[in-house]
């Protein structure tokens, strides 16, 4: 076991391979495989207190206050009570511990909920209901439809023909399209027989646990035969069984050894950049404190040696205490007295500020998503100011940038485009809005009511029976691998690719309804008439072909090949007679691509019966060949897919989330770089990159790195870097960043001329992330404006984030919505989860969460910037007021014989940070804003100073310390010379200790309040109350504590009787207070005036504009729909796996019979219960309900004004 992070028992040896015997727990237990229980929590009852305190005392200030507490309990050196430190320290530790405990309790609850799920496990020849946590490696489990996969399983058998199962992997990779897995034939023969499965004693030898989601290698030995195993027969934990009544699987990996948990990453204790800087500053301050105390202790020793004997009547001392020992004791006394340079109240106040700014995020109505009733949530309260320093954003694609919804928007048929709506009078194209009436498909009782199309001319062409239009939709209804189902009389399409689902649903609504398929036939309903086509061959898709074809025979006996694919591929195979139509279609494709749509080209040809019979025979021979099967099949496909006749093209929108493009544009203006890390294929990711303006046509170049060897990857990266910055060396430029003896290397930013993009594939990224090449990748990527990584694993996402964190002095943010994003979210400085369609795994692991990507700009540019600005102002002011307070003690020591006497009244010392100065600075840190949120969004450049740590850094701290030193000199010596040899108006002497103390503390209180007033940019009623109320409270408390009544009650505690009243009735005292206040703030005013005139910052410029416009919000920018010309077109967009066509045509693939004509088309209309679930403007492979209309996305300013006006 592990206790306090120490291994108390011998560690399990690292696995190199795994051996499993089915239905033999005793054998498998000997290998000490992990159980299926998971643990994402950090603590338990025994470890919470020590581990939490260990984490909290990593904050150096907490350790400093603990040491101070130890000193205060020693009577010989303590001049202050011990409870002045122990109470606030205990409060800080307790509040933080309670917050951490609540977070971890929630993790425990989540773990218990998962671990206590029920599963049917085959034990002792019968199925038993067991908790997930009790499942072990080697057990056989029965899964039923819509159940989560319990552990990583080897599929043994299923209810479907050919032992297929359908799974949804949304929790793993964020994709909702279904995937197909298939069991071995030898195990599939056991079917659902419990007796056969209980007698199964197969032995599996496979790879050790790892995080590769796309790879599995192993063998099964059964009945003295060895069978190869691959990823096609493995079901991973986190998947969901769909459209399969039942299946049985053998547990290969359980609990923390499953691929899902291997990719989750470890929970880490996140601290902000300011926290890390504060650790350094506290060490420096402590060193400076020790230096001051040494100086004063030496001074005390010298004074005792030369002057101590003369003051024996006033300062009695023990005879046996010499000057040296007295100096030693004085050193520790001054350590206690001067500890206010870093008061414990600083950290209490910081936690309050962070909590308050977290609530602002939770309460922000402009980050509330009404459709799903999801508010923004700050799931941690310790990272708010870090949001104001983000330099790199790492984003998932599916479900984060996109909605994972494909919509059939436009098409081109026989040289004519459909999909745009024109004004009948002006013939101008109209922008489609939610108020526009869509095409009425009521003639078709099988139409999808959620499908929306606005160009009625296409439906009219269908009804007029135009041959080309009917051929177009007939191709869409036949050329695909979609699986239809009838569930409670509802028609459901299950597609491996959402693109296919959208196209088939479009054909369905226009009267060409795909109804059923068998291995040998396809049944469709054309305008109410059922027709069954013989399916003779499927020429399957792969990444090289970028197209798919089907060969069918119509009921009339016509033999045809239908093909769809990328335009560049299809155009090479067209008949020369299509040249004119190809030119017209190319123009339409350019227009579609300019709008960011994904395009496919459709073509067909009629086949000769004799030729096809001969070709079919050769196809059968090639398909059964043992050698060079793929090459032979490709040659046959190339042969028959020639001289095609062009029909037209489709244009599908991979629907972005609302406001994605505007958000990316705003973040780019704020100098925030966005890297997209996605599991999707390269082409799909590129399409989204262009659609949301991450990649642009006007970029100087977009580099594609897709090599398959380390040497080639290295060369491609260097070639890209050489093109961006000719003459750049092979060695990275480092900035030495020495902190506390460590020397981390920081890669320097390198400037380039022009904007560049980088697209790198997963297999290339795997080589590039190796130690010898990671700097090549980082240097090249950081020169680019946009980086897109495709086909990456969850672990690779985290490795990319760690690479940037390690070598760039920058704050990172990761945003995602699926379980595949968890490791990336945990690795980044800030993790943001989007509560979308892919479950809540990302949200549960995140620091902040909301429902839409567009809210990220408000989180960073408004809340993040304000939080950082407020925290920096708070720290600068807090250090100023406390350094000034403390340095006055230092100067006073030279005039009191270094006796460790305090310059202030003890009551003032106790209340200075607690009452007199706490609320004003808290008010500033909670309510201050340099400009309002509207201007923050209007000028994203305001965000840049935070990235460069301009508001608080070591330099800013030193300036603050120098200002405090100057102010302390003013606050000590001006009152000193004011009371020196001075007389009151009544003739009595003013130069006494108590009068000097009251004058000095009054000057100090007024001066720091005036300084705060200058620092405040935004005065609210609360700020006025806190500032002037605290100042008034000082005078009220001073007069009260120095009154005759309290002195009579307790003379020892209230010795300054009448001092305040006697001092403050002197005109010279008030002149002194005014003079010290003016002199303290004068350097600040001069410095600000000069710099605003000579070198104004972006904040100064914007605030000047605000003042000129009387703080009016900028007018909302109406964004016209941008139509950009482009020669780039997306290619074949389907994502289903190669080889799926073979499964479709296999003889045992489906058991569902073809739907009869009577049930396939109901001319009298649908029953009220009929609810088709496929969709185009909204097709979702997960069959989740979608809104039929998408609201037009207003800008952030418009949304603010809408809420602001409603509250007036």
Structural class call reads alpha+beta
Strand content: 15-25%
The shape is: elongated
Strand order, largest beta sheet: 16-39-38-37-17-31-36-35-32
Assign a percent range to the helix content: 40-55%
First-residue to last-residue Cα separation: 62 Å
Instruction: Let me know the average pLDDT.
Output: 82
How many DSSP helices?
A: 41
This entry's quaternary arrangement is: single chain
Low-confidence stretches: 1-11, 736-743, 1119-1125, 1148-1208
Care to count the β-strands? 39
Q: How large, in whole angstroms, is the Cα Rg?
A: 37 Å
Biggest sheet architecture: 9 strands, mixed
What does this structure look like?
The chain is built from 41 helices and 39 strands. Helix 27 (855-893) packs antiparallel against helix 29 (918-927), helix 33 (993-1015) runs antiparallel to helix 34 (1021-1041) and helix 33 runs parallel beside helix 37 (1067-1094). The radius of gyration is 37 Å and the shape is elongated. By secondary structure, the protein is an alpha+beta fold. The longest helix is centred in the C-terminal third of the chain and has 39 residues, at 855-893. Among the domains are: 135-264, Calcium-transporting ATPase, cytoplasmic transduction domain A (Distorted Sandwich), CATH 2.70.150; 350-358 and 874-1099, no CATH class; 366-400 and 657-725 and 752-861, HAD superfamily/HAD-like (Rossmann fold), CATH 3.40.50.1000; 406-607 and 643-655, Calcium-transporting ATPase, cytoplasmic domain N, CATH 3.40.1110.10. A 9-stranded mixed β-sheet has the order 16-39-38-37-17-31-36-35-32, with helices on both faces.
